[in-house]
Amino acid sequence: MEQALQKICGKRVTTDPFECAPYAKDVAYIPGFFVHLLTNPVPKAVVQPISVEEISSLIKWAKQGKIPVTVRGGGSTAYFNSVPMRSGLVIDTNRLQGFSKLELSQGSNRKMVWVKAGMTWKDLDDGLRQQGCAVCSSPSSAPSATIGGWVSMGGLGIGSVPYGPVHDQIMAIRGVTATGEIVELSRPGKDLTKIQGSEELGLQFDDLMGTEGTRGIITEIKLLVRDVPEKEEHLLAVFNSETDTGSMMSWLGGENLTSLYNVHFSSPEFIMTLQEAGYAHEIPLGKFSLEIDLEGKRDEVDVAVAHIRKHVKVLGGTLLPDGVGAEEWADRFKSLRLEQTLPSLQAAEITLPVSNFAAFYEGLSKLAQKTNTLCVTYAHLVSPEMALVMVLYPSDELNTIRYIADLSFISQIYKLGQSFGGKPYVIGLWNTPYLGKVYDRGERERRRQRKQALDPQALLNPGKGYNPPSIILNSYVFGFGMIMIGLLRPLVLKILKGGKGR
Amino acid sequence: MKTIEELREQIAKTSYICGSCGSCRSVCPVYREIGWESAAPRGKIALAKEVFLKKKEEKATDQYAQRLQECTLCGKCAEICAAGIKTRELWLNLREDLRARGMEHQNLTQMARQIKTTHNISTFSNENRLDWVDDLDEVEVEVSKAGSEVAYFVGCVSSFYPMSVGISQSIVSLLDRANINYTVLGSEEWCCGFPLIASGNTQQVTELAKHNVEKVRALGVKTLITGCASCYHTWTHEYPTILRENLGFEVLHATQYLAGLIRKRQLVPGNLDETVTYHDPCDLGRNSGIYDEPRELLQAMEGVNFVEMPHRREMADCCGGGGNLAAVDKDLSQAIAVKRVREAVTTGATILTSACQQCVQTLQMAARQEKLPLEVLDVTELLWRSLEE
Ligand SMILES: Cc1cc2nc3c(=O)[nH]c(=O)nc-3n(C[C@H](O)[C@H](O)[C@H](O)COP(=O)(O)OP(=O)(O)OC[C@H]3O[C@@H](n4cnc5c(N)ncnc54)[C@H](O)[C@@H]3O)c2cc1C
Ligand code: SF4
Ligand code: SF4
Asked: Whose CA is nearest to atom 21 of ligand 1?
């Protein structure tokens, strides 16, 4: 195997178990016995191609030997998205680096660059800023998330309010199909944005948007970029209740402020946890905070600041002194600092209509109290109407029983979220039991057909995104299991004295 | 001094904080060369988690030891860490544990022996510390002169390595030009111990620290200056911790001291028609917080067109010469240096400066190997050149 791969990638191949082992992990810890019950994650080989041609040869080789292929970028996802379910070949994209000269789009005169899939969003933004440009939006994992990784995921993050999901900013893609064909796909015209069904032959543009490396491999994208804004302001407003905070978020979404770039919510528990670790001391304890980031033309930003000031007052909130918001903004990629206080957190992430944010939060507080769970919550506004909400709570990976008991809390959060129009943000492997919560029946069927048409051998990232790959992950079986474990959780926490309450 | 159990407990606690997000990946110069996850900071922490938190001793293999020693201690991973982990401290603790396990790289063991014997990192006797003075015609360098205001701690590299003695020669020439009453320690200057600290060998440093501090105190100087970024970091950050006391005199990097002289107009820089860029040494910049004074010196020279590199200040890339990397893997160190000199060339600069003898040496070798049209100098060398010309 190594020799065959070396013929394609030279020295950029490893089959050494020591080197392959880290590719069997991602951000989230899952107890080993559970992982091995359902998967065989350690790859047989990892390769680091440097060109689309090499990737094409790798796929053709894997196809011949029916070897499953998983693409990995930054490995900053948490649902085994980029971890193999079946041991095989991992294509690590990190040597696909660099971006082209700026180009102008025909007609609209917007600036664009071709950027390689393995570059991180932060490296791209830093590089563009040398030339007076910037990315339109980026994930809050920008220092680790790769171009290909975020495009293959939900694509929502900082800057999504004005610019939409990253998928909207892509004008063309270069990549490789599941059969090893090299393709270049342009953004379809408005009438063609949706592919009708499996009858559409060959890989299409939309097949690579948010499909988690299951239909093809992205090697390069043509991305719209923006000029570095004339002015930035970062406000930090605090409120007394979730209702006022939710109202403010809805108002911000609905107000059509041209310079509104990002809105970030932190719960009082989030702030408290950060303060225990020695950060965020300027934010008063017990308050709900909103970081409001404005970027754009000088006068637009100034007008928006004045407008926001007034509305914060109307809702009984307070704007903290200048500089506090800027400091929070500077630390926007450091959300994990709360692990200094609470290592081994578990998390559930959902998209939620912002109009229901306060009600969801209230429900979450009740659930947290009932189950004696400390919920540490933050959220981003990702469109005028939607928020991406992350709920974290302490667990302990050193105690497997406690950890498994805590896993059941994720499904309780999803259930609560669903009652307010929310759904899990990511699928990967661990969320396949919740596929029914994310897509309706028709959409699930359409997705399955598309996968079957493009990758009949199920070579690309098998087990992810379409059907639960095991009876244990079947939505009924898994749901029932989680309910049972959830019932036992209070007892487990009591015995282990591990339930960190309010 | 921590017991080994306390050390291991601390490693376990720190590794537990890591969220495996990978923000530290793309900034790490070593990972960028090697490319495999095991070489990324998060890969190393994942291994530490196994060994110290989950007590899987069998994971402490030779490959694990190799990866822990393939690190320049540049601290860039700490700067970006999404969880705010002081990773540089963690790497040092892990190296200390490696020594305790007898898994230290043989070249580092050899280096520790060398320092014990000669009190410097070279094979020369410490009596030869001032050989570089012989080439100075107009400046007289006095050793352990009583009543001096300033002591200059030269550092091993610019004392013994012909490629680097220009730095010490420039510094004393500048002090002389500004009429500063200064002295040096001569053979009483012992290695500051930085290479030992970087090997996790804090025990052996204590003796060196005690000796050096005692000798400087005996001079009664108000200020100690160092030309080397790592010596500076050791004197300001490590000695007070190791000795658990204030040193009793001020310690400044030569660039800080010289910038002060220029501000007071006690030293007036000359002219130079050159395009110059600056490489922040990790131990002076990120690890000690000094970014402005070296730039102040460069901008004080009339005619100098100062240009910045894309990776600078807190986000400056490493030269590849730190953390004893060259002793563990010379090619890796050189490959990192090559990236840095190439970056310097893209700015249009013909002179790359730094403020550290180790950085200058490493970058000089890379520029030569690549045959780049780039001269590599210490800031103090360029400053002296502006006055000489
Ligand atoms: C602290 C933190 C903050 C985060 N914030 C956000 C956020 O704001 N928004 C957000 O959406 N997510 C966020 N995430 C989750 C994650 O970081 C992002 O989804 C990120 O975009 C994943 O990129 P990656 O390169 O790490 O992808 P990986 O984890 O390597 O891969 C993700 C998926 O994409 C596939 N893939 C990767 N590269 C390619 C390619 N070239 N072609 C085809 N398929 C590919 C993989 O197979 C996998 O299914 C965050 C995570 C962390 C730890
Ligand atoms: S200190 Fe520098 S070389 Fe070492 S792991 Fe961190 S970034 Fe890499
Ligand atoms: S950035 Fe920090 S938390 Fe993230 S993987 Fe690296 S060391 Fe761990």
From this structure: A150
